Write the structure tokens for this entry.
Amino acid sequence: QVQLVESGGGLVQAGGSLTLSCAASGRTFSTTTMGWFRQGTGKEREFVAAVSWRGLSTYYADSVKGRFTISRDNAKNTVFLQMNSLKPEDTAVYYCALGAFPRATMNSDGYTFWGQGTQVTVSS
């Protein structure tokens, strides 16, 4: 069984930065893609970023491209989301997810395990 635990969320002013971390347990972490999704209040869950199993390929939602950076440390079973130039519309619960395949995907159907989420609130 895989467990994913997110951390690093909090309250930040617009223009500020936060780094989210997701620690994974289980043997499959280093062989699969990892992703971040978010869900704002009253909104559907949406894709944010994904990184392939070796970290060589990354994908971003247009809304965060150029501001967010996803990375992973397979030796530590951890994936990160560096968020810069945060905007109030980035406010959401952020979830990390472990993919079913090595290749990164933006489709939530391609992820089999999900964390509990961490709240990010950006004040204007």
In short: The chain has a mean pLDDT of 95. DSSP finds no helices and eleven strands in the chain. The radius of gyration is 13 Å.
